[in-house]
Specification:
This protein has about 130 residues and is mainly alpha-helical. It is about 80% helix and about 0% strand. It contains 5 helices and no strands. The radius of gyration is 16 Å and the shape is elongated. The protein starts with a helix and ends with a helix.
């Protein structure tokens, strides 16, 4: 059941990610911010659910040839959700003038472009995982 729900979440999240990107490009920053906050919270809930879904000794058997792929997918997946969290925090704390917060806000577009590529890769990798494990 988790795999099916993961696929549904992946489709919804990828669609919203594209919509959020479009909102940023067209200048609808408020809507972009709302969607990105929702996606970041959803991504963290997905990761927490994934990590907490298995009791000790109930992890599914992973074929040895997929361990490298799953390691890459999981590692790359953490960059956009940690990055999105940092970008959101920086935007919410924009009134603070510390140099690190200002730096993150100043380069938000560059960071966002990198993170969106990684996030799309993560979702596409999730779709691959769905088909590998169903």
């Amino acid at each position: 059941m988790f795999l099916h729900l993961s696929m549904v979440w992946g489709v919804i999240a990828l669609t919203l990610l594209i919509v959020a990107w479009r909102m940023a490009v067209t200048g609808n920053i408020h809507r972009h911010k709302q969607i990105m906050i929702f996606l970041t919270i959803g991504a963290w809930m997905f990761v927490a659910n994934y990590l907490l879904a298995y009791e000790e000794g109930t992890m599914p058997k992973v074929p040895p040839e997929l361990i490298v792929w799953l390691s890459i997918h999981g590692t790359v997946a953490m960059f956009p959700i940690v990055g999105a969290l940092v970008l959101i925090f920086a935007r919410l704390k924009a009134h603070l003038r510390s140099s690190k917060i200002h730096h993150i806000n100043h380069y938000h577009r560059i960071y966002g472009r990198v993170l969106v590529v990684l996030w799309v890769f993560t979702h596409l990798g999730g779709f691959v995982n769905y088909f590998l494990f169903t």
